Amino acid sequence: MFDKDLTVVESVVPVTSSQDSPSSTYPSKGSITITFDDNGQFKVNGTKKDPLVNLYVIPGASKLRRILRDTNELIVCPGVYDGLSARVAMELGFKGMYMTGAGTTASRLGMADLGLAQLHDMKTNAEMIANLDPYGPPLIADMDTGYGGPLMVYKAVQQYIQAGVAGFHIEDQIQNKRCGHLAGKKVVDLDEYLTRIRAAKLAKDRMHSDIVLIARTDALQQHGYDECIRRLKAARELGADVGLLEGFTSKEMAQQAVHDLAPWPLLLNMVEHGAGPVITTKEAEQMGFRIMIFSFASITPAYLGIRAAFRRIQTDGIAGIPEGYGPKKVFEVCGLSDSVRVDNDAGGSGFKNGV
């Protein structure tokens, strides 16, 4: 990224005219004007070009921002909560992933999603997932309420950026929060919510980061639809990149939100058997949503699968794992071949006899 003092750069270099003959001794002279804007975009003689963020590895935040900016596709992100679930998402070729706060709380703390996971828990988990594969899909992560006042929100965003997170959502629930699909939610007043958005925007701007700021509101239960739209519009005015209205009660409401906030991109959190209706990826794309996350897409199937295997141990004396899914298969999903290749290419001998 460029310092704000260098938003406009001009360079004059010699160029060869297309009308010059190959044998011309002195090429004609011309000027090339390169103009940078605040978003890192640049134009060469008025033609927009993509910024060269890195010649080899494009940060996840830049990947996510480019997809939002340059395409109209729905970014489908299965909810992941640990390294294995993230590896499965990558194996299947998803273009994005979502680190669920509920899944992180359940897997790391063994507790319900009642605001018990704090910044260290969430950032540490997100950092591990985001860095499993530098060429992998961008990771969107839950940031709950920001874990405190403006200074804590600022610190949280800094740490998420440094962890390699591509995008995050921050919400307006009170600090003693709960899962967005439980009853009894309460939210802070609009001014306090916007303080969180300002602090988050300030952190990303000062770090010149492409991280995508997603403004989430949980005000529907307590204050109704119109207040949700008012809050999201206010967050948009402060520079939030994407909006999230949690807990739609009908498909019609979801469609209305896309219409009322257009052309601002919206994220849909699809929680089956939660507070709202089941909306498929095809329906969400037709409605005009830009990102769709499935918060419980791995944690619930994991619970069901683990419970079934444990029950078979009790009843049959064996877990009953299907043939072909022994240790090596799971390790392959977790990068076994790549690890062996690195050791071999470095001249190591740890795997010369295979695995």
UniProtKB/TrEMBL annotation:
Pfam families cross-referenced by the UniProt entry: PEP_mutase
- Catalytic activity as recorded in UniProt: (2S,3R)-3-hydroxybutane-1,2,3-tricarboxylate = pyruvate + succinate
In the UniProt record, the signal sequence range is none
PROSITE patterns referenced in this protein's UniProt entry, alphabetically: ISOCITRATE_LYASE
Question: What is the scientific name of the source organism?
Answer: Talaromyces atroroseus
Q: Which family does it belong to?
A: Belongs to the isocitrate lyase/PEP mutase superfamily.
**Name of the protein:** Uncharacterized protein
Q: Which GO terms describe its molecular function?
A: methylisocitrate lyase activity
Q: CDD domains, alphabetically?
A: ICL_PEPM (cd00377)
**Top-level lineage group:** Eukaryota
